[in-house]
């Protein structure tokens, strides 16, 4: 949904393309998924625990993406502002995010802006389920590792989306996810970037009259 929206002719997509560069790796575990594994690679590695020191032989996709991120970060001509790792969640409902905890209170507060905006755009995204942590078990994740590597102008998240359902209105209003519902959440993630950059005055406001259709 994110990719389809960004390459579409939608006026918001055009504004995003005119102002931002998106680097997208559609899947970091192609061999594992091909075999039916949603978490482990062909060699049995949980790839989202090896970001600190990925092997070019055992974790080639992680190694390649990490090198790309570091190269961009070290390029003075590039402002690397967002890293979002996208996963399915096997137990919780809705879409939600994990973020990092920082000693700098202002940085911590700024990190909460994007998920709050996404919550306004996507009815199936839950800010109440969004959490910011430094759990030792998650130390090898992309979100934790890059959150410690990149500077305070970069925001690192894990976007989790339920395998099953999302809740609307109350605990009894459970709606099963469909392919279209997942696609819609992706579109809403993409359009939230416009809200974020408008809020920070980095993108002009040429679309004030555009209907905000979900």
Automatic annotation (TrEMBL):
Active site: 160
SUPFAM superfamilies noted in UniProt: Zn-dependent exopeptidases
PROSITE patterns: PEPTIDASE_M14
One Gene Ontology term of the molecular function aspect: zinc ion binding
Keywords: Carboxypeptidase, Hydrolase, Protease
Any one GO biological process: proteolysis
Peptidase M14 domain ranges (all copies): 1-197
Pfam families assigned to the protein according to its UniProt record, in alphabetical order: Peptidase_M14 (PF00246)
Top-level division of the source organism's lineage: Eukaryota
Required co-factors: Zn(2+)
Family (UniProt): Belongs to the peptidase M14 family.
Full protein name: CBPC6 carboxypeptidase
Source organism of the structure: Columbina picui
Lineage: Eukaryota, Metazoa, Chordata, Craniata, Vertebrata
